[in-house]
Specification:
119 residues; 2,3-Dihydroxybiphenyl 1,2-Dioxygenase, domain 1; 4-stranded mixed beta sheet; 3 helices; 32% strand; VOC_core; Glyoxalase
Length: 119
C-alpha cells in the first residue's frame, strides 16, 4: 500500500540547471542535494526542504508543465509571495477553494507551482 510521497520530478531543458538552482535555492529557500554519480551524468538537479524533495530532470523534448504541478505547503505564504515577486516570478492568488490561501507561480522555465498556506 502507498505510504508516503518520496519526491516529485519536473522536466527541465538541457542547460537550465544554474538558472533553476538560483530560483529553487533563492526565493523558494530549498537546499540542493547531490545526485548519485550514476544519475548526475544525465544532468538536472535535486532539492530538499524539510520532508519535501524535488527532482529536476533534463528532458530533450522539454515542454513546461502548465497544468500539472506540485503543491507545496508553506509556513508564511505572504513572505514567500513577496520573495517570488521581488525575484520577478509571477504570483497569481486563487480563492477558488474556500478556506485555502494559495497562489500559483512558475519556475524560470515555465513549470507551474502551487503554494499553499499551512493550516
Amino acid at each position: 500500500m502507498l505510504r508516503s510521497l518520496d519526491h516529485v520530478q519536473l522536466a527541465i531543458p538541457s542547460g537550465a540547471e544554474d538558472l533553476l538552482r538560483a530560483f529553487y535555492t533563492g526565493p523558494l529557500g530549498m537546499a540542493e542535494v547531490p545526485k548519485p554519480p550514476a544519475l548526475a551524468v544525465r544532468g538536472g538537479c535535486w532539492f530538499t526542504a524539510g520532508a519535501v524533495q524535488l527532482h529536476l530532470g533534463v528532458d530533450p523534448d522539454f515542454h513546461p508543465a502548465g497544468k500539472a504541478h506540485p503543491a507545496f505547503v508553506v509556513d508564511d505564504l505572504d513572505v514567500l509571495a513577496e520573495r517570488l515577486a521581488a525575484a520577478g516570478a509571477p504570483v497569481r492568488w486563487s480563492d477558488e477553494i474556500p478556506g485555502v490561501r494559495r497562489f500559483h507561480t512558475e519556475d524560470p522555465v515555465g513549470n507551474r507551482l502551487e503554494l499553499i498556506a499551512a493550516h
